[in-house]
From TrEMBL:
Residues 233-242, 252-265 have a biased composition (Basic and acidic residues). Keywords: Membrane, Transmembrane, Transmembrane helix. The keyword Protein biosynthesis does not apply. Its main location: membrane. PANTHER family: EAMA DOMAIN-CONTAINING PROTEIN, INNER MEMBRANE TRANSPORTER. One of its GO terms (cellular component) is membrane. InterPro entries: AA-Vitamin_Transporters, EamA_dom, EmrE-like. Belongs to the EamA transporter family. The keyword Membrane applies. This is EamA family transporter. It is found in: Membrane. It is a multi-pass membrane protein.
Length: 265
């Protein structure tokens, strides 16, 4: 692999490790819907920064209002959970940019494989020190950890890379804007988490901000503008130009020179 491929894959692996630790620590203190809402702020900031327009101010204000509702003193959310959520948001922003970069540098899945291996190498020593004794007493936790790795890392990251190879960051942000609502529904249905009216309003504002910020301007697709046509060479003589085919321009030039084409019977 080229050095730039190694750098991109290693950086993505480091982001994988930090993002997973931050998010799983955040949901230890916060409901899943709230943690997903804070994490969504990262991709929203990326979308606004890459496609800045005055209309994006409305999305930024909606997101700011949602964060104020979540983090204000009356919200009763642990500070540790908010800090971990903000760290996860920063990592999610880097993840979107780096995942797209790796997808462009690698035609296959080798870049993602290297990134996941780097993330595993960074997290394995930490997990061995903090939870090694628990795993030794309950080996079945390894199977649970494998399922978590498949469902929360390998499969989602592969799908994200596939999507980012086909759509731009703006459209991908629209899909990510649905994650807080999905997280809140899963937390309520599976884990029995209860979300207050205030938190529901904050989640709705951040989801709307994400969809608005990345989808308010349909013309901003994030594609490169077409390259300008090459300027004509002033030293090139008209005689060096390629001969014209039997099109309308060639017929016009022949008629101007007094040459008439014989008509077909």
């Amino acid at each position: 692999m080229a050095p730039r491929q190694w750098r991109a894959a290693i950086a993505l692996g480091a982001v994988f490790a930090t993002m997973n630790v931050a998010y799983f620590q955040a949901i230890e203190y916060l409901p899943i819907g709230v943690a997903s809402t804070i994490e969504l702020l990262g991709p929203v900031v990326v979308s606004v920064a890459m496609y800045w327009h005055w209309r994006d101010m409305a999305g930024a204000l909606m997101a700011l209002t949602g964060v104020v509702l979540l983090a204000s003193p009356g919200a009763e959310l642990p500070v540790a959970g908010l800090v971990m959520g903000v760290l996860a948001a920063a990592c999610r922003a880097g993840y979107v940019v780096l995942n797209r970069r790796v997808g462009q540098l690698f035609d296959d899945w080798s870049g993602l494989a290297v990134a996941l291996a780097v993330g595993a190498c960074l997290l394995t020593p930490v997990a061995a020190v903090t939870h090694g004794a628990a795993v030794a007493h309950h080996p079945r936790l390894l199977l649970t950890g494998l399922l978590v790795a498949l469902l929360s890392s390998l499969i989602p990251y592969s799908l994200d890379m596939t999507a980012l190879r086909r759509i731009d960051v703006r459209a991908f942000g629209v899909l990510l804007a649905m994650s807080p609502a999905v997280g809140a529904c899963v937390g309520f249905a599976v884990l029995g988490e209860h979300v207050t009216v205030r938190q529901c309003a904050a989640i709705a504002l951040v989801v709307a901000a994400g969809a608005w910020s990345v989808g308010s301007a349909p013309g901003r697709t994030g594609r490169r503008p077409p390259e300008p046509a090459a300027a004509p060479d002033p030293e090139r003589s008209p005689r060096d130009a390629p001969p014209e085919g039997p099109g309308r321009a060639g017929v016009h030039r022949a008629e101007k020179a007094g040459i008439h084409r014989p008509e077909k019977d």
